[in-house]
Amino acid sequence: MTASKENLSVQKLVVGVGLALFIIKIVAWYITSSVAILTDALESTVNVVASFIGLYSLILSAKPRDTEHPYGHGKVEFISAGIEGALIAVAGFVIIYEAIDNLRHPHEIGSLDYGILLVILAAVVNYFVGFMAVKKGEKNNSLALIASGKHLQSDTYSSIGIIVGLAIMRFTGWAWVDSVVALIFALVIIYTGLKIIRSSIAGIMDEADDELLDKLVATLNERREENWVDVHNLRIIKYGSVLHLDFHLTVPWYLNVHQAHDEVDKIDLMVKEKFGESVEMFVHTDGCLDFSCQICSKHDCQVRQAPFVKKVDWTVRNISSNNKHRLE
Known about the structure:
By secondary structure, this protein is mainly alpha-helical. The protein has two domains: 3-204, Cation efflux protein transmembrane domain (Alpha-lytic protease prodomain-like, Up-down Bundle); 210-320, Cation efflux protein, cytoplasmic domain (Alpha-Beta Plaits, 2-Layer Sandwich). It is built from nine helices and three strands, in the order αααααααββαβα. A three-stranded mixed sheet has the order 1-2-3. The longest helix has 30 residues, at 3-32.
């Protein structure tokens, strides 16, 4: 199964779970009349809307590239994630409002035992489905799926707060406790939403992914071959689940086109072993120049113009520069 199909399957599960848990929470609210549980149910409506948005974005991002979208439709995932992040943050503010209102105007709550059990059930299912969605999203580089998973997990955190509040209220009779706990977890939810918005904006703006660059540079250093004299002008752009990687590779100038392409194929295979098949790599090959000899460790070079001095360790900084490496 391709990464896109896997993402769609998981997102469909997220949609189904969101609908089922929304119904469970409405039932829990109906039998308890708890404003705290109603708040949890209201957040679940956001989950349902967000999961449908995520599903649509994954369906659209899975469409093949066309003349109008030569790099595919993956960028829609960043927009989807931004909307979900905004909805999460809004849900947090709604919870704050409801909690404060409940502090000002407390009312009687009944059938807490059944309500707590239903909310616990919803929280457990939410967390595990969210965890699975995040892991699958990280594996397939899908920000939309990660956002959906974190959305479910954030719902779990708010449910935990509500469960704690209801349990304390059940044994102490302190009606104000659930509102205070809900306020605390509302801040966690808002923080989660803002982080997702930040990630989506970074993706839309093609912000450098330092973690991804670190992994790539470490892999290149670890598997480096002597014909790879220099790598520079490296860039990584995410389009949904697809990574577009391009850079310049300096090879010995006397390699013919086929030999230079063999070196590119080696890097392509190495990158896909590390990051999966959802990588598109575009490499421009350069021939080495006289100053390259000092950093070139090729031992059987017949046209060397200067002795080898030392190998330049590739870093995110020097590998991203649009200049061939040389000794100062």
